Amino acid sequence: MGKSSVLSLLVESLAREEQINREHAENLIRDLLEMERRGSSAVKGGIALPHLETSLIHHMVGGIGIAREGLHFDSSDGEPTHLIFLILAPPGHAQRISQLRLQLATVGRQLVAQHKTGPPLMCHDVFSAINNLVVNI
Question: What pLDDT digit, counting tens, does each position of 96-136 carry?
């Protein structure tokens, strides 16, 4: 599974859960892939933080993807990506997105590092770790 498939799955999941308008899903995927062409959202430590500010979104939403075996996401360290945090927001949220990405990067790196030699990374591990972030943003 590649970057395009992962982003499509995350956006389609948000549409199924009615967090975004289904008719905008294709455009959101296209715009996210264009952002990825300009520069990968994968960062060191096995995580990727794709994000998009767009008028197609009316409130900040996000999705989480876990790739236990890792996937190629064009990370700067060349390592596989295990955890993907997707952030979509309306215009004017650049500062909030930036703050959230910094916090998610820290938490995500810790989670991936803990699970490289231990048990597989599970959804409840991720939700438990980011629960405090959601409250504090």
Answer: 999 999 999 999 999 898 888 778 888 888 888 888 665 55
Q: All domains of the chain, ordered by start, with CATH?
A: 3-136 (3.40.930.10)
Angle at 41 between CA 52 and CA 110, to 5 degrees: 115
How far is Cα 113 from Cα 46, in angstroms, rounded to an integer?
A: 8
Under 8 Å between Cβ of 89 and 51: yes
Residue 98's H or E segment, with its range, is helix 94-116
Q: What is the DSSP letter of 78?
A: -
The strand pair at 51-53 and 61-71 is best described as unpaired
What type of residue is 27? N
Query: pTM value?
Result: 0.90
Sorted by sequence, the CB contacts under 8 Å of residue 6 that are 6+ apart come out as 65, 67, 71, 73, 84
Give the separation between CA 27 and CA 78, rounded to whole angstroms: 29
